[in-house]
Structures are given as structure tokens and as C-alpha cells.
Amino acid sequence: MVLKVEKISTKSQDFKQIKRVYEEVFPKVERIPLWLLKMRANEGKAEFCSLYNENEWVGFFYTILTKKLAYIFFLAVDPDRQGDGYGSQALEVIKERYQDYTMGLSSERPSPEAPNNEQRIRRQSFYERNGFTKAGFYSIEKGGVRYDFLSPQGKVKSNLYVDLMAEFFKQRQAYYLPLRVEKDDE
């Protein structure tokens, strides 16, 4: 089974599925208003892509793009299809799709104090098994949550991420997530 990727329009039939999974999988505090994601995709600053197993829709990802960085902001497999290996396959097709870019994503940093620490550990382990490692910095976002920046290319300059987020959220500073970015001492 090889996943097929298709960049979709915000007017696509798939968008109902994307909206459903987006709202089901991501906690409200982690979601960006869908209108803003759609607006940036329509401006060419980001893209929604659907994932298919043959002709069956199994998930999506949303990537913000600059000339140098492809940032996977959201990646989700339909909850009815989770555990079937689609997440790992999705990361493989994403790495292939953006092979000419520095690539990255953020994952909650494990912390013994976090109520979802086991989930954070599992998630980071999943990304590591799929070739994403700590890039040398993390962001601190609303509520003090720390997110490790992970990349298949290893170390990444933090300014690429800071500049990407500033450009993406320009004129929408209320949604600008990273409160600050710090060097990773681990």
C-alpha cells in the first residue's frame, strides 16, 4: 500500500473530511481558525493535501511554505484509520514531496509534570522512528507549553521557523503562537 498525495483546493469535496478530522483530532487550544488556514492556502503561502490509500481518503496535512522551509503545521489520519500505518507512510510521502526544502514540525516536549506526558513521549518516539530529530531549539507557546522543533535534516536555524511564523501570522498577531524560541540544551 502506497499513499497518494493530492494538493486540494479549499473548495474541494475533501474539505468536509478535513474539517471533521481537524476538529476531532486537534484540541481546541491547538487549532488555528480554519478561515485563516484557508486564507493562507488561497494566497499560496500554505497548502492542504489529502492522503489516499488507492481512492479512499485516509487523512490530510497542512504545510506552510517559504522559499527555504516546509513546516508541517497539521498532520492527521482519520481516527477510524489510525493504527494502520498511515502516519508513518504519510511522513515518507511528505519528506519526498518537500525534499528540496528544509523540513520541520513541532511536537510537545515531554515533561513529567504534563498530564499527557505519555502521549508526548509516544508522539516524539513516533517522529524519531520516522527520521525526525530535534533541530536544536524549541518554542514556548501560549500557556507555557514547550514544543520541540523536529526535522529530518537534523539541526535547523531557528530564525527559519521564527520568520515563517511571523510571515504566516502577519496582521493576525493575536494568533501568533510562539511567545519565544530558545536553544535546546539537551
Q: Widest sheet: strand order?
A: 1-2-3-4-5-7-6-8
User: Into which percent range does the helicity of residues fall?
Assistant: 25-40%
Count, helices: 5
Q: Major beta sheet, specifics?
A: 8 strands, mixed
Rg over CA atoms, rounded to whole Å, is: 16 Å
Low-confidence stretches: none
Structural class: alpha+beta
Q: Mean pLDDT score, rounded?
A: 89
Q: What coarse outline follows from CA principal-axis ratios?
A: globular
Write the layout of secondary structure elements.
Layout: E1 3-8, H1 14-25, H2 34-42, E2 46-53, E3 56-65, E4 69-77, H3 86-97, E5 102-108, H4 117-129, E6 133-140, E7 146-151, H5 158-168, E8 180-183
Parallel strand pairs: 4-5
Antiparallel strand pairs: 1-2, 2-3, 3-4, 5-7, 6-7, 6-8
Short key terms for the protein model shown above:
31% helix; alpha+beta; 5 helices; 186 residues; eight-stranded mixed beta sheet; 8 strands
Description:
- This protein has 186 residues and is of the alpha+beta class.
- Helices cover 31% and strands 31% of the residues.
- It has helices spanning 14-25, 34-42, 86-97, 117-129, 158-168, and strands spanning 3-8, 46-53, 56-65, 69-77, 102-108, 133-140, 146-151, 180-183.
- The protein has an eight-stranded mixed beta sheet with strand order 1-2-3-4-5-7-6-8, sandwiched between helices.
- The longest helix has 13 residues, at 117-129.
Brief description of this entry?
This protein has helices at 14-25, 34-42, 86-97, 117-129, 158-168, and strands spanning 3-8, 46-53, 56-65, 69-77, 102-108, 133-140, 146-151, 180-183. By secondary structure, the chain is an alpha+beta fold. The chain has an 8-stranded mixed beta sheet, with helices on both faces.
